[in-house]
Amino acid sequence: MRRSIATVSLSGTLADKLTAIGAAGFDGVEIFENDLIAGELSPADVRHRAADLGLSIELYQPFRDFEAVPPDVLARSLRRAEHKFALMERLGVDRLLVCSSVSPAAVDDDALAAEQLRLLAERAAEHGIRVAYEALAWGRHVNDYLHAWRIVRAADHPNLGVCLDSFHILARDVDPYAIETIPGEKIFFLQLADAPALPMDVLYWSRHYRCFPGQGDLDVAGLVSHVLRTGYDGPLSLEVFNDIFRQAASMRTAQDAMRSLIALEEQVAATTGDPSTSVSLAVPPPAVIPSGFAFAELSAPGIGAAADPLAGVLGALGFVRTGVHARKPVELWEQGEARILLNAGGPDSKEGPALTAIGLESPDPATAVKRAEALLSPVLPRVRDPHDAQLDAVAAPDGTEVFFCWTARPDRTSWIDDFGSDDGGPTQGAAIGEITHIDHVALTQPWHHFDEASLFYRSVLGLSPHESLELPDPYGLLRSRAVSTPDDRVRMALNVANVGAADGRPDVAWQHVALASSDIVATARRLHEAGTALLAIPDNYYDDLEARYDLGARRHALLRELRLLYDSDEHGEFLHFYTVTTGRVFFEVVQRLGGYRGYGAANAPVRLAVQHARLHHRSD
Predict the structure, then answer these.
(1) By C-alpha distance, which of 568, 571, 439 is closest to 516?
(2) Which are the contacts of 28, defined by CB distance < 8 A and separation ≥ 6?
(3) Side-chain half-sphere of 3: how many Cα atoms within 13 Å?
C-alpha cells in the first residue's frame, strides 16, 4: 500500500518536512494548510519539490465549517472553496478534506448538510477534485463516521466520499465494525493516529497527545482491517498532532513514523490473513522473542584500579571477575546467570559510568537482526577482530546498544569465549552470593524519544507494553512504561523525567540494573556487613509501611533494619533495595515472592527523593 503522512506531524518548515518525509521512504504527503500559508514556497514550488523527492501530494487539508449553514454563510464558503480549488490545481492535488462543522452557525439538519455538500462536490468536480468528508469527534452535529456516511450517501455525488480517521472513531469508543458497510470506493481517504488512554476532553486529547500507531493504546490495526475489507485501496496516511513531535528533529520523527506503518501493516496482515483485496502489506521477518538477558554492559573508565567503585559493589554483591576480553579493555563479572561487562573503552561520559549496552538471549540472532533492519534499525558498525564471536547490535532510541546473543549455542563460538581466564584477577574464585539473573533494566529516555522507544521495543524486539505511569519526583513527574516478554524473562522499564536543570534543579538520567536474589535478606546483610553504601531509606517510609501493611512486628523490624522496600500485588510480594549511584548507574536487588509482576512503582517516589537529596548534598 502507498504510505503517506501529514506535514502537521513533523517539526520545521514545509521544505524541511518534505525533505524528511521523502528521506524516510514515504510515497505521499498530506499538505496541512497552515504549513503552506506560513511558508515561502509557492504552491508550484511545493509541487515540484514533492515530485523531486518522489512524493505524490495525496490530500489538502483542512476545509472547515462548510455544511448545514444559512445561505449567506454558504455563499462565503463557496467563494472560499473556489479559491482553494484553484490553489489545489497549482499544487497538483485532487483530494480536499472537509471536516464536519463546529460552527455555531451550523444547524442539525442532515438533509441540508447533504444538499450543501453535494453542491460543493459539483463545484469540485469542475476542477477534477474529490471531497472527503470527515466526522470530527467534537463536531457540532456530526461526530460519528456512520453519521457522516449517511449524509454522503444522501448527497449521492461521485466526487463526494468519506474520510475515516482512526482517532476520531476510536477516541469516542465507537465500534469500527460497521465500516465494512461502506463501499470501498466511497472511502476517499484513511488517516491514522494512535493515542494513550487519557481521561480528558477529546479535542485537547487530539491536539496534543496523538502518536504513531503502536505507541498508544488504540486498536488502530483492527480499524485498518475493517477498512481493507471494504476494498479500500488508497494510502495509509498518518496524521498526528503531538507537542513533542513538533519539537523533535523531523528526520528522526519521519523515520519513526515509517517504522510504525511497517509494524502496523504486519499487524493488519496477521489479523486479516488474506483480505481478498488488491493491496500489498509489509511483512517483515517474524519477531524473535528474547529468552533472557545475556549481559548488561557498563562504561567504566579506569576499571582495574583498586578503587574502582563498580568493581567494589559487584564484589560485595558476590560477583566474580571471571574473564578479561582478549583484545578489548572489557571485564566479565558473573554470578549465577547474571553477567555484567565493565568496559573501560566505552563511551566517555562527564557523569561517569553509564549503562551503554544490553545483550539479549535470542534463539535466532540472524532473524532478529533482519527484522530490526526491516524496521529501520540498522546493525551498528563495529570493529571486530577476525577471532571475535559474531555479535550484532542495533541502537535503541536512547543510544543504548542492543545485542542479539546466543550464549550457550553448541554449534557456534559463544561471545563468552572472547574472554580469557582471569589469572590475576583480584576477585577470582567461586561466586558467593544469591544473585541468580538480571531481573530487569531501567533506561531513562530523552524526553522527546519516549514514544519512539516504546515503539522500538514493541516492534523490533516483540516486547509487550504495559500501562504508562506518572510517578512523583521532587522536581516534577517521572513517566514510566514497562515492556516485557510474555513470560517476563525480559523486563525493561522505560523512563523519562519531566525535570530540567533550570533554577538549580538537577538534570539527571539515571539508569539501573535490577538483579534477582534468591534470598534478599542474606544479600542485604552481607552488603551491610561489608560497609557497601546502600540507599538510606528514611524512617518515615517504614512508619507509613506499618500503617499500610500488617506484616507482623518482626518482619517490619527486619525491613527497617536492612532498609528493604516492600510492595505487593494480587500475585505476590516484592522486596528490593538500591545501591547508591555511581555516575549515572546504580543497582537494584529484588526478590519476587509468589509471582509478583510489578516493579515496585509505589516506592519509586521515595527512591527518587533520596537520590535527589544525595545529589544535592554532594553539590553543596
Answers:
(1) 439
(2) 2, 3, 4, 55, 56, 57, 58, 235, 237
(3) 19
Q: Are 66 and 81 in contact (CB under 8 A)?
A: yes
Strand, coil or helix: what is 167?
helix
The residue-averaged pLDDT of 95-123 equals 97
**In what side-by-side order are the strands of the sheet with 565-569?**
464-473, 476-484, 491-497, 435-444, 511-517, 585-593, 572-578, 565-569
Q: Would you tell me how many other CB atoms lie within 10 Å of the CB of residue 328?
A: 17
Cell of 217: 493504546
Phi-psi region of 351 (alpha: psi -120 to 50; beta: other; left: phi over 0): alpha
Cα distance between residue 165 and residue 176, in whole Å: 11
Hey, CA dihedral for 106, 110, 116, 122, is it positive or negative?
positive
265 neighbors 34 (Cβ within 8 angstroms): no
Give the pLDDT confidence of 226-241 residue by residue, as tens digits. 999 999 999 999 999 9
What pTM was computed for the model? 0.90
Which amino acid, residue 80? R
The answer to whether residues 440 and 570 touch, using CB atoms and an 8 Å cutoff, is no
Contact indicator for 431, 442 with CB cutoff of 8 Å: no
For 547, 564, 577, 580, the CA distances from 540, given in Å and listed in that order, are 11, 13, 16, 19
Q: Which range has the worst mean pLDDT, 407-421, 468-482, 548-562, 600-614? A: 407-421
Distance (Å, whole) CA 18 – CA 250: 9
For helices 43-52 and 71-91, the axis angle rounded to 10 degrees is 40
Distance in angstroms between the alpha carbons of the first and the last residue of the chain: 59
Please name the residue that has the C-alpha cell 573508565.
301
Residues paired with residue 421 on neighbouring β-strands, in sequence order: 323
Q: How many CB atoms lie within 10 A of CB 370?
A: 16
